[in-house]
Design a protein that fits this description.
Number of strands: 8
Largest sheet: 5 strands, mixed
Shape: globular
Order of helices and strands: EHEEEHEEEEHHH
Helix content: 25-40%
Mean pLDDT: 94
Number of helices: 5
Length: 172
């Protein structure tokens, strides 16, 4: 499998490296990093102060030419009536997006023995693997440790592993 990462806006190198590393380690795929694209102006909702996630998926699909394409941004995203999303993907589709905007916040439970940079990079890896999992046909998993578990808060992202559980692995 080949995945194209399309940075949208100013995405720091450590974020791009974490995304690429996560995809390679879990899916063993080839990853190509595209040049950064500008933010889609028509996707910005002034009343919310956020961007529509779907516009980033569409942009990734136009720029990327791989089996799977993922937009990566530091901007705050929303989808329909949700207040925010860490990411979004079309089930069994070829496009997805991950936003790091809310992954940078502190978890309620604090941290033990890892630096903030390490925790943040882990969150990025998990969310990228999660969204590409959806494009591979995986739905949310009931196993709270599986990377495909639905995690609407950073605390829940921190609880899950970067890997697929045995059941999800079998489906891929």
């Amino acid at each position: 499998m080949h995945v194209d990462i399309v940075p949208v806006g100013d995405v720091p190198a450590p974020i791009k490296r974490a995304a690429s590393a996560g995809l390679r380690s879990v899916y063993g795929c080839d990853v190509m990093l595209h040049d950064a694209r500008t933010l889609p102006e028509d996707a910005y909702d002034e009343s919310r102060g956020q961007y529509r996630a779907e516009a980033f998926i569409e942009l990734a699909g136009r720029v990327g030419s791989a089996e799977k394409n993922i937009a990566l941004t530091t901007e705050d995203l929303f989808y329909r009536r949700r207040n925010y999303v860490f990411g979004l993907a079309y089930l069994s589709g070829n496009g997805s997006v991950v936003s790091t905007y809310r992954l940078q916040t502190a978890a309620d439970g604090g941290r033990l023995n890892r630096s903030e940079d390490e925790v943040f990079a882990g969150r990025v890896r998990k969310e990228v693997v999660h969204e590409i999992g959806h494009t591979l046909g995986l739905e949310h998993c009931d196993d709270e440790r599986c990377v495909m578990n639905f995690s609407p808060t950073v605390r829940e992202v921190d609880v899950k592993n970067q890997q697929l559980c045995a059941d999800c692995s079998t489906l891929v």
